[in-house]
Structure formats: structure tokens, C-alpha cells
């Protein structure tokens, strides 16, 4: 292979003769013979596909008309904005061509993941050759008109992106952000025993943190139950402007690294097509033979040993087959081939001439007939079940509803509000245990080593933790067939679950609230996929991405400031309102009701925040079902003097379990000490109800909102997260000027639960003070009560400093007690 060091040893003068900035077109190569498993006819066939897909890729980047060069290229044949990335495309097309060969020969059920960022022209081209565009998008048929439309739409206003996206047939992996390809591939393979995933990983992508962790995903693949992934590390040596680490590691060191991850690497290297084709064919056959033997041993002999799965290292030039020199600078095999090798082809006559020579170097007259249809040699290589039309890559086609037990049977009894206590997530864990048992092939729970910590350990009564490695004498609940995936990487949990959901199955990702931020970018990417795919007519809805965030900000008092952050909610509400849902259930029964709804839903990102510590039970099963269906409502049993036909003096609103507790404790004090005050209590369980109806499907109309929160009375809102999020959601409401929000103020430490809420002025005593300060005329006549509240806070703070725990009058409070320190 011509390596970069060889190229860099040349000078511009060596390449162009006189060093005058010449631009040189690629020379059409002659396909030589090379030893290997492919016969001459097979070699010609796979190379013909490769040339055709490369031609179509170049056409997508450059052309808006004249797709088969029936006339000399003119400036207006070329797009005014040249967008796209060619550098990685020849490698992607090479893998697709060889994957099709083994799919046909072995009858594989296979899908393709293109990890290198903006390699979209390659999979687009292969999907068009396979006639997927005709079937899915009939206005892009497999003829010259369809080719022209394929070219025109690429990176064009109203068209398709430059990377693999929902519009790309056969893709379930968004290529715009790097690092997740291998996780999506393994997630797709879980519980898909006959699936093979060809996953191409870019060498730039391989430098990312998520991808570095992703190599360990092979530790969760069970050869007896799951499908297989063939990772193909595509080394073309460069990113946008500098070399990649993986391509400059000595080959022996790279092989050692990958063997250390548990793989058995095979190497395909070169820049002469014929030997590369033969090497790739050998590598593909070897990988599939070994995979077949691992699966046979597991499925027939009961072998439970973790295999050393095969993979391929593919080392080929960046921008292979593009112009070798442009404006006196080496391009092919360098970083300059990363994007558009001829950036001024529309305005520069020499670039335009070389572009035409480049396109003709693929000999399109041998690839497409007079109608622009691929020749028979190409059409015959399309498998009976092509990757571009595999329903696995359009997972909504395969969705089966979960068999869910009736959540009401798991509810806790509530005779009187606030008199009993339960750990909400432990109650949910009992239900999820039976969800897991009743759905043994299409439901997973993923956690970064936090299943038991988050009180979901009941799931382990019916399944183990997925574990394919050695089991020690003190290990607990490890199983090669486990339905719970625990790995201390939020990236891996998110990526594996995304791959599982994108291919039509269901799951839950539970995480400490503060650390879900680690996957902010992954969430953004998936939410955008959901949003964009909803606009693609042939895409079907997939199961929702369900988060359960616990160990939350208000009860991370033992771990301290670094573990206290509710800001993921702010990230989520930035996404399309058609996609995101945020729920803050106040107790165990509402959590059950909400999660039943989430697991039945499709095509959403559902974020549920619930506590794992003992908390009051407020609503019965029946009340919880009604309240969650409404999403927001007046808790009439907690109100005071809020009779029908009257207007309250103040509204106490709350969202979240701890804010609800503090709000009701404040309400009890007001009822006792200011008996004439008219108090309305509102609980918000569906945060999106705060938005206007025209902004979100769950939003309240202005009359509905006004009827609850009034048009002109003070509203004291105790909120789980950062206060400004509530203001952001409600800024257009009539009564926004009277809305006063208490929430997390970025004040935290290792302290007691009640001291934590006091640090952020969310405590019951401060809420009472807010009422006194906000209700007109109340300040003077309630001055004594306000002073009592100030002193109550001081006593509570002093008690924690002396005893290391909260005062019993606070810690043991139950509704409707009005207990105040010092009373």
C-alpha cells in the first residue's frame, strides 16, 4: 500500500512536473488479476459495483444535472454549493460491495452501519443501486431521471443531509456525530439471533471517548442468543486536517490493542483494487466462518465461553480514486481528500475539466445502460433481501407491543394522603420485574452499575445481569442470558439502548440524575433522529427512549455537590415538542402510572425523575391514574378555603417529589396559622402541560391555564429543577408576572436532606415566607408568623450542625401536621 509517508516524501514538482499548481485527473485503472477466493468473474463483478457506487457518490457531491455526462460538463451542471465528504466513501462502498457478496452466498440477514461522519454519498449510492429508492421514494427511480434526482437532492435545500440520516434507506444510525456506531451495531444485534451487522468505524471516530468504551460491547454479546457484529476499522489516515491516531499506531501495536479488547483482527491493506478485493473477500469469509462456528457451538453444544470475535482492519487511501493532485497539492491519500477534492469546479474551468475526467475514469458507459439503469452485472449482485430494505433498519416495522402487567396491581394503599411512605422506584421495580419476565426477547434494562442503588433490584429476581465473562465466587446475579445490562459507562448504556430501540425493541435506561448529562449529546442526536424520521413517509415509529432518573438532586445530600444537578430537564425541553415528554411523579403510584404510559408509547423521549428514598404516598391508585391522565391538577384535599366559585389568595404549585413534600408542609402551616387565607394547591406531574397548547401537544390553552393558576394571584411554585425553566415554559402566560419559582439554585454540599432544601430556599418555611411576602396586605398581619419561619430555619440549621441529622419534627412530618420547630 502507498502509505502517507511515501506520499509526503514527494514534492509538488514530483507530481506535476514543473510545480506550477497543476491539477491532475485520476487515470482509469485496469483491473489486474490477483490471487484469492474470488474468481475472475466474481472479481470483476464486485469491482463493477464498487466503481458504480463511487461514480454515484461523486455525482451526488457535484452534479445537479447531466448525470451521465451525455454532454460536456457546463458550469450550471454543477451545484453552486459543494457540500459533502468524499474521503471515506470509497472504503464504505468497498465494504458494501463485499457484504452483498456474502449475503447472497450465505443467505444472511444483514444490516450496515456507516460510522464515518459524512459518508452519506456511499450508502445513498448503494441503496439506489439496490432499487430501494424506487420502492421507498418512487420519484427517484433506478434510471437516468432517478439518478439525476438522487444527485440533485444531496446536500441541497429541501433535499437530504450529507451524512446517513433517516432519509437514507437501510440506515438506522445517524452519521452526523461520531462515536456511537459500534454501540448501535451491538444494540441491534442483541436478541436478534440471525442478524449480522457490518459496522464500519472511522479512524477519526475511533478517537472519541464513546467509541473507546464501545469496544467492550462484545462482552455483552451471547453467541447463543444474539446476532453478530463485524467491526471494520476503516483506516484512511486522516481527519479534516491532521492524521488519525489509529492510523499512525504501528500495526503490531494496533493489533495488540484490539486483541486486548477481545477481538481477533484481520488486516486488509492496499491501494491496488484487485488485491484489496481479494483480501476483503478472504477477511469477510473468515469472519463469517468463525462467527458461524461460535454460534453453532453455543446453540448446539451449549458452549458458554466468550468468543474472541473477529473484526477487520481496513487500511486504504483517503479519497481513493479521486484526483491525485489539485492546484499543485497532493490530495488523494491526504487530508485534502476529506471533503470536496475540487472545491471550485463550478467556476474554475480546469477543476471542471478534471471533475469530468474523474467521473469518466469510472467508465460509466460500462455501468449504466442507455436508460441510466445499472447493467445486469450490477443488478445481479443485489441480494434477495438487500441491506437497504432490511426492516431491521426501519425498526418500527418490527415493533411488538410489550405484554405489560396491570400497574394498578402493584400500587400501594393510600387511605389518607401523606400518612404512609414508600420508596417510589422500589415499588416500580416490582412492576419492572414482571415486565422483564413477560417480555423475555424484546425488553432490556440498562444501568451504569446502579440497578440496586436505584432500588430496582427486584428485576434480578427474574433475570441476571448480562455477563459473558468469568464469574467469581463472590459475584451475585451474573448470567450469560441476563436481561439487565450494567456497565459503568453512560455512553454504552445509551448507545446500546438506542441500537435496541432503533431496531424495534423496548427498554429503560436508569441513571443518577446528575450523571445523565454525560450523554447530553447522544440524547440530542437521538431526539433529532426521532424528529427527522417522523417526517419521512416510509419510516415507522419506534419504541420510545425511556429514562428513569433517580438518586436525584434533592436526595444526593450524602454524595454532595458534584452529584446534585437537575439540568438534564433543560436540555430535554430544547428538543422538538413533538418528541419530548418530561414527568415528575410525586409518589409511588403516580410513578407506576407514568411508566406504564411511557412503555406503551412510541417515538418519544420520555424523561421521568423519581426518588428512591422513602417518601410520602399522596394518591391512591385510582387518584394517581386520573391525576397522571390530566398531567396537572388541583389537589382539593390539600387546599384551604378554595371553594367553587371563589378565587384563592395564593396558589402553591409544585412539581417533583421533594418540592411536593415541602409545598404540602408549607400548606399545613398556612392552614393552621392563617386560617382565613384562601390557598390553592396544584401539582404538576407532566411538565409540558405548562407550555401553551399551540407549542406542545400536551400544553394547556390559556383559559385552562388561567383557570388553574388564576390571572392575577400570586403563584409560589416549588420546582424540582432550575427555577428559570418554569419561567421559560410560562413566560407568555397572563399571570407570569405573579409567578415566583423556587428550585435548585446551584447550592449544594454533603449535608442532610432538609438542609439541602434550605440551602436552595425550597424548604417549607421559606415557602411560607414567600406567601407572606407576595400576598397583598399579608405582610403586616402575618409578621409574627414570618418571624417564626425565620427562626424555624435557624433552629433546623443549628440542629443539623449539632446532631448530623434533621430535626425529628421535620424528618418525621406527616400531613396535615403543622409542626414547626419550637412550637
From TrEMBL:
Compositional bias of kind Acidic residues: 7-21
Known EC number: 4.1.2.-
Every Xylulose 5-phosphate/Fructose 6-phosphate phosphoketolase N-terminal domain range: 39-397
Keyword DNA-binding: no
Region entry Disordered, spans: 1-29
Protein name in the entry: Probable phosphoketolase
Principal EC category: lyase
Keywords for this protein: Lyase, Thiamine pyrophosphate
Keyword hit for Signal: no
Organism: Nocardia mangyaensis
Record-linked Pfam families: XFP, XFP_C, XFP_N
Family: Belongs to the XFP family.
Residue ranges constituting the Xylulose 5-phosphate/Fructose 6-phosphate phosphoketolase C-terminal domain according to the UniProt record: 612-815
One of the record's GO molecular function terms: aldehyde-lyase activity
Listed InterPro entries: Phosphoketolase, THDP-binding, Transketo_C/PFOR_II, Xul5P/Fru6P_PKetolase, Xul5P/Fru6P_PKetolase_C, Xul5P/Fru6P_PKetolase_CS, Xul5P/Fru6P_PKetolase_N, Xul5P/Fru6P_PKetolase_ThDP_BS
Record PROSITE patterns: PHOSPHOKETOLASE_1 (PS60002), PHOSPHOKETOLASE_2 (PS60003)
Cofactor(s) listed in the protein's UniProt record: thiamine diphosphate
GO biological process: carbohydrate metabolic process
Amino acid at each position: 500500500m502507498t502509505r502517507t509517508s511515501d506520499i509526503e516524501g514527494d514534492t509538488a514538482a514530483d507530481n506535476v512536473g514543473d510545480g506550477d499548481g497543476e491539477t491532475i485527473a485520476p487515470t482509469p485503472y485496469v483491473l489486474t488479476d490477483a490471487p484469492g477466493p474470488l474468481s475472475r468473474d466474481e472479481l470483476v463483478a464486485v469491482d463493477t459495483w464498487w466503481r458504480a457506487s463511487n461514480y454515484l457518490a461523486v455525482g451526488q457531491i457535484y452534479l445537479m444535472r447531466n448525470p451521465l455526462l451525455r454532454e460536456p460538463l457546463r458550469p450550471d451542471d454543477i451545484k453552486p454549493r459543494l457540500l459533502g465528504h468524499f474521503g471515506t466513501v470509497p472504503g464504505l462502498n468497498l465494504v458494501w460491495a463485499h457484504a452483498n457478496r456474502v449475503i447472497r452466498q450465505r443467505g444472511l440477514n444483514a444490516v450496515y452501519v456507516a460510522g464515518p461522519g459524512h459518508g452519506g454519498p456511499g450508502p445513498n449510492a448503494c441503496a439506489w443501486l439496490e432499487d430501494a429508492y424506487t420502492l421507498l421514494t418512487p420519484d427517484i427511480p433506478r434510471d437516468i431521471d432517478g439518478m439525476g434526482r438522487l444527485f440533485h437532492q444531496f446536500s441541497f435545500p429541501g433535499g437530504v443531509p450529507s451524512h446517513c440520516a433517516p432519509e437514507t434507506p437501510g440506515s438506522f444510525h445517524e452519521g452526523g456525530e461520531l462515536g456511537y456506531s459500534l454501540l448501535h451495531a451491538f444494540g441491534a444485534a442483541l436478541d436478534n439471533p440471525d442478524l449480522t451487522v457490518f459496522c464500519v468505524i472511522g479512524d477519526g471516530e475511533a478517537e472519541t471517548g464513546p467509541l473507546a468504551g464501545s469496544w467492550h460491547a462484545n462482552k455483552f454479546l451471547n453467541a447463543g442468543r444474539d446476532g453478530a457484529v463485524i467491526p471494520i476499522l476503516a483506516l484512511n489516515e486522516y481527519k479534516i486536517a491532521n492524521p488519525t491516531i489509529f492510523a499512525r499506531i504501528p500495526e503490531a501495536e494496533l493489533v495488540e490493542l484490539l486483541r486486548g479488547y477481545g477481538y481477533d483482527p484481520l488486516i486488509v491493506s492496499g491501494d491496488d483494487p484487485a488485491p484489496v478485493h481479494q483480501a476483503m473477500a478472504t477477511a469477510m469469509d473468515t469472519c463469517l466462518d468463525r462467527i458461524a462456528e461460535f454460534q453453532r457451538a453455543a446453540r448446539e453444544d451449549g458452549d458458554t465461553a466468550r468468543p474472541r470475535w473477529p473484526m477487520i482492519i481496513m487500511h486504504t487511501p483517503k479519497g481513493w480514486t479521486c484526483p491525485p493532485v489539485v492546484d499543485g497539492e497532493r490530495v488523494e491519500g491526504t487530508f485534502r481528500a476529506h471533503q470536496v477534492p475540487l472545491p471550485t469546479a463550478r467556476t474554475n474551468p480546469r477543476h471542471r475539466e478534471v471533475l469530468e475526467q474523474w467521473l469518466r475514469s469510472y467508465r460509466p458507459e460500462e455501468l449504466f445502460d442507455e436508460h441510466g439503469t445499472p447493467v445486469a452485472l450490477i443488478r445481479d449482485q443485489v441480494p434477495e433481501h438487500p441491506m437497504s430494505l432490511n426492516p431491521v433498519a426501519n425498526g418500527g416495522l418490527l415493533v411488538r407491543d410489550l405484554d405489560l402487567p396491570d400497574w394498578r396491581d402493584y400500587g400501594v394503599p393510600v387511605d389518607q394522603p401523606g400518612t404512609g411512605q414508600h420508596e417510589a422506584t422500589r415499588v416500580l421495580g416490582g412492576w419492572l420485574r414482571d415486565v422483564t419476565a413477560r417480555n423475555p426477547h424484546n425488553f432490556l434494562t440498562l444501568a451504569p452499575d446502579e440497578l440496586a442503588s436505584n432500588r430496582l433490584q427486584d428485576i434480578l429476581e427474574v433475570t441476571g445481569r448480562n455477563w459473558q465473562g468469568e464469574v467469581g465466587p463472590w459475584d451475585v446475579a451474573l448470567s450469560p442470558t441476563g436481561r439487565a445490562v450494567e456497565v459503568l459507562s453512560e455512553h454504552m448504556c445509551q448507545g446500546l439502548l438506542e441500537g435496541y430501540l432503533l431496531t424495534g425493541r423496548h427498554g429503560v435506561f436508569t441513571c443518577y440524575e446528575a450523571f445523565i448529562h454525560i450523554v447530553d449529546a447522544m440524547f440530542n442526536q437521538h431526539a433529532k433522529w426521532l424528529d427527522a424520521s417522523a417526517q419521512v413517509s416510509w419510516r415507522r415509529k419506534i419504541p420510545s427512549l425511556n429514562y428513569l432518573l433517580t438518586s436525584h438532586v434533592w436526595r444526593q445530600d450524602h454524595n454532595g455537590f458534584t452529584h446534585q444537578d437537575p439540568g438534564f430537564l433543560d436540555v430535554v425541553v430544547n428538543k422538538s415538542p413533538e418528541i419530548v415528554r418530561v414527568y415528575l411523579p410525586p409518589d409511588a403510584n403516580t410513578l407506576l402510572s407514568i411508566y406504564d404510559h411511557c412503555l406503551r408509547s412510541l417515538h418519544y423521549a420520555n424523561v421521568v425523575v423519581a426518588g428512591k428514598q422513602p417518601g410520602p404516598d399522596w394518591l391512591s391508585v385510582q387518584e394517581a391514574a386520573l391525576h397522571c391522565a390530566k398531567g396537572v391538577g388541583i389537589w382539593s384535599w390539600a387546599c384551604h378555603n378554595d371553594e367553587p366559585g371563589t378565587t384563592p389568595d395564593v396558589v402553591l404549585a409544585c412539581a417533583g417529589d421533594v418540592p411536593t413534600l415541602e409545598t404540602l408542609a408549607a400548606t399545613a402551616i398556612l392552614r393552621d396559622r392563617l386560617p382565613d387565607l384562601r390557598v390553592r394547591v396544584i401539582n404538576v406531574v407532566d411538565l409540558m402541560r405548562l407550555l401553551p397548547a399551540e407549542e406542545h401537544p400536551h400544553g394547556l390553552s390559556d383559559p385552562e391555564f388561567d383557570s388553574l393558576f388564576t390571572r392575577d394571584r400570586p403563584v409560589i411554585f416549588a420546582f424540582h429543577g432550575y427555577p428559570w425553566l418554569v419561567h421559560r415554559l410560562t413566560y407568555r402566560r397572563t399571570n407570569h408576572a405573579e409567578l415566583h419559582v423556587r428550585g435548585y439554585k446551584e447550592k449544594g454540599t454533603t449535608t442532610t436532606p432538609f438542609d439541602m432544601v434550605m440551602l436552595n430556599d425550597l424548604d417549607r418555611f421559606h415557602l411560607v415566607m414567600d406567601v407572606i411576602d407576595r400576598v397583598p396586605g399579608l405582610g403586616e398581619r402575618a409578621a409574627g408568623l414570618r418571624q417564626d419561619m425565620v427562626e424555624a430555619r435557624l433552629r433546623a440549621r443549628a440542629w443539623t450542625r449539632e446532631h448530623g441529622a434533621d430535626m425529628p419534627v421535620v424528618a418525621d412530618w406527616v400531613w396535615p401536621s403543622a409542626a414547626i420547630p419550637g412550637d
